[in-house]
Amino acid sequence: MVRILFLGPLRDLAGVQEREVTGPLSWNTLLEVVGPEVAEQLRLDRVNVACAGRVLADKTALRANDGDEIALLPPVSGG
Length: 79
Hints:
Elements: E1 2-6, H1 9-14, E2 18-21, E3 25-26, H2 27-34, H3 36-42, E4 48-51, E5 54-55, E6 63-64, E7 69-73
Parallel strand pairs: 1-7
Antiparallel strand pairs: 1-2, 3-6, 4-5, 4-7
Helix pairs in contact: 2-3
Protein name: MoaD/ThiS family protein
Pfam families: ThiS (PF02597)
InterPro entries: Beta-grasp_dom_sf, Mopterin_synth/thiamin_S_b, ThiS/MoaD-like
């Protein structure tokens, strides 16, 4: 299983803090399983994706295997 963590406002959009799905997981599969509202946000450049503890330079190259954790990282706000 691949564990997907929804952080910040993405958690509110998803309605859950995390979800487990069967791996492997590609970018397109991730967009399908997170739902349309979260997928729309993930397509934005300002939202990052981390897999197995590393932020991906190219999130569309995502390849998560069973046992991996994906964190969906919204932009940081504050001042």
